[in-house]
Specification:
Elements (H helix, E strand, L loop, with lengths): L1 H32 L4 E4 L2 E4 L6 E4 L9 H4 L5 E4 L2 H8 L6 E4 L21 E4 L4 H8 L19 E11 L2 E10 L4 H15 L3 E5 L4 E5 L7 E10 L8 E11 L12 E7 H8 L13 E5 L3 E5 L11 H9 L3 E3 L1
Parallel strand pairs: 3-4, 3-5, 5-6
Antiparallel strand pairs: 1-2, 6-7, 7-8, 9-10, 10-16, 11-12, 12-13, 13-15, 14-15
Length: 330
């Protein structure tokens, strides 16, 4: 009898230990699968999901916006050297805030080079846009000579962004805000330009009925038409059930030798989309289906599952574009 009871106790103990281990392992797996809040890049902390909305280059000691001022605005990333600034601007389209005492940190002509020349630029420190943007940053703003030694250089901030490029010239927004520097006001203007910069180029497809908006960094983009294929579940030899068009938008940097991240737009008829949702056919091996971007009376427009799984060059920018809700059906 004691042997039986002992055996039962041992089994119970083993069961409890196994249950605890499975529970702890499950918790660990869940923690690993959750996205990290931050990652370390060049010794600066950046939200992994690119939660920053502006990058501010300023001297380590000093600057118009102090560390205390910025504590309430974690979405503004402060950097103290050009290398850290370049790490961010080479991966994301993002407003660049430049402190009046950080001009010498930028290589000559860098602000006028692709792609950052198409980003919103905020000059923090002076409210006169001609002095700040034309004479200090040497942006392509033309006008009469000004003797600044005879001018009253009021504090404030200025905004600049190119909105149109064409042969022989550009169009841009340029505005100065004089007075006490207020981070909330700067951020408001910066965010406004940030949203606008993703909707500068407009691709219109009248055949299927939609517009797709792109930033100016995608100037010279190309649209390639291909085909998606849907297969019957359980069919031998992958029997084709449905097909339809897929439009692939490539930026001007894309080459066969070094492909960059593309934007694929799958086009379904309403009945095809309904059948896909009812699992009457499947597309690819991904356990999840395409994501709807928009629809009109005839078609549903969708983003393929795992379209950026290979993380090619430029995938971060495409992710930003897609987060801006760029497709507009009509």
């Amino acid at each position: 009898m004691r042997k039986i009871l002992g055996s039962k106790r041992i089994k119970l103990l083993v069961f409890v230990l196994v249950f605890i281990m499975v529970f702890l392992l499950g918790c660990k797996v869940k923690t690993i699968n959750n996205p990290k809040l931050t990652q370390n890049i060049n010794n600066i902390i950046v939200p992994e999901n690119n939660g920053i909305v502006a990058v501010y280059i300023s001297p380590k000691n000093g600057g118009v916006l102090s560390d205390n001022d910025l504590k309430a605005y974690p979405e503004i990333l402060k950097v103290n050297d050009f290398e850290s600034l370049l790490t961010i601007t080479s991966r994301y389209i993002i407003p660049i805030w430049i402190d009046k005492d950080a001009i010498d940190m930028l290589p000559e002509g860098w602000i006028n080079e692709f792609p950052q020349k198409f980003y919103p630029v905020i000059f923090v420190g002076y409210g006169n846009p001609l002095y700040a943007m034309r004479d200090k940053l040497e942006l392509p703003i033309f006008g009469p000579y000004v003797d600044w030694s005879k001018q009253d250089l009021e504090q404030g901030f200025c905004t600049w962004m190119i909105t149109v490029t064409a042969e022989g010239g550009i169009s841009s927004t340029l505005k100065g805000y004089k007075g006490d520097v207020n981070i909330s006001k700067i951020l408001e203007m910066s965010n406004s330009l940030f949203k606008e910069c993703f909707r500068i180029l407009k691709y219109t497809n009248n055949e299927y009925g939609f517009n797709f908006y792109l930033p100016l960094t995608w100037n010279g983009y190309k649209v390639i038409e291909d085909k998606w294929t849907g297969y019957k579940f359980g069919a031998s030899g992958d029997e084709i059930a449905e097909t339809g068009p897929i439009l692939i938008i490539r930026d001007s940097e894309w080459t066969e030798e070094e492909p960059t991240q593309v934007i694929p737009i799958m086009i379904f008829t309403i009945s095809q989309w309904n059948d896909l949702k009812k699992e009457k056919f499947h597309i690819g091996a991904a356990p999840i289906g395409p994501t709807e971007l928009g629809r009109n009376s005839k078609y549903v427009f969708a983003l393929p599952a795992r379209y950026n799984y290979a993380f090619p060059k430029g995938f971060e920018v495409v992710d930003e574009i897609m987060q801006s809700n760029p497709l507009e059906a009509f």
